[in-house]
Write a structure and sequence with these properties.
Blueprint: H1 3-26, H2 32-48, H3 55-63, H4 71-90, E1 96-103, E2 106-111, H5 121-131, H6 133-142, H7 156-169, H8 187-193, H9 195-218, H10 220-233, E3 235-237, H11 238-246
Antiparallel strand pairs: 1-2, 1-3
Helix pairs in contact: 2-3, 4-5, 4-6, 4-10, 5-7, 5-9, 6-9, 7-9, 10-11
Length: 248
């Protein structure tokens, strides 16, 4: 193989990897079944048009013909997800593998978490701050919050509440009888039946929200920079996020 051919081959491989990386980032949050369906339907489109499958076929399938978000909603999604990313980064919880605001139900961040120190109270409190950072970012930028952090079992508030309750009841960090282990599979009836416990759990959440607000106020330039780029591009891979977070 000539030097020119080797160069062309290397360039082609790099292009393919770049395309696959973009598609992988676009597909964040989708299940394996979703991806299989998208590839199958993209092949059918290409076959009907008697041509090779193209990037646009897969990209359209991933977006599922979703209409463009209204400007204000897209901006709020960007602020919310940027808030999570900045706090996750500043508190050194682990690498960020990508962010998207182009999902049917809003934004999504693909976050990884380091194992070192993860069994300590301080780490879990940092994790609480990260979970509430989207809400904190909205509060800072808009002076109001949306339902984007709540309303579902997998929402930010639901996950944060379960963690704060576990700190009080099953992880050994409770303010009352910390040596007792209670496995609360259904937090709502437990919290409704025990107002004092609910107050302690809420105090942990309030403390975490204040911490998230402090971190974001101290890194406002980074928050604004990441928000602007995410709003414009809608999807960022881990490398792009890291560059924006570390800039300056």
């Amino acid at each position: 193989m000539t030097e020119q051919a080797m160069s062309n081959s290397g360039s082609l491989e790099s292009d393919v990897q770049s395309v696959l990386k973009r598609l992988g980032t676009r597909a964040m949050g989708l299940t394996g079944a979703d991806v299989e369906r998208i590839v199958r339907e993209a092949r059918q489109v290409a076959r009907r048009q008697k041509r090779p499958i193209q990037y646009k076929d897969l990209d359209d399938g991933i977006r599922m013909n979703r209409p463009e978000l209204p400007h204000d909603l897209r901006w709020r999604f960007a602020v919310h997800e940027a808030g999570h990313a900045v706090v996750h980064h500043v508190l050194k919880l682990g690498p960020i593998q990508g962010i998207t605001i182009d999902m049917p139900d809003g934004g999504y961040s693909l976050l990884a978490f380091q194992r070192s120190g993860s069994d300590t109270l301080s780490y879990r409190e940092d994790l609480l701050a990260m979970l509430l950072a989207g809400r904190a970012a909205e509060q800072i930028v808009f002076c109001s919050v949306s339902v984007g952090s709540a309303g579902a079992e997998d929402s930010d508030l639901a996950r944060a509440t379960r963690l704060a309750l576990a700190l009080e009841r099953s992880l050994g960090f409770g303010a009352v009888q910390p040596l007792l282990y209670r496995d609360d599979k259904h937090p709502t009836p437990v919290l409704d039946a025990h107002p004092d416990l609910a107050a302690r759990v809420h105090a942990r959440l309030d403390k975490a929200l204040v911490k998230a607000i402090d971190v974001l106020n101290g890194n406002r330039e980074t928050l604004d920079r990441l928000t602007a780029v995410l709003f414009e591009q809608q999807v960022l891979d881990g490398e792009a996020v890291s560059e924006l977070l570390n800039k300056g």
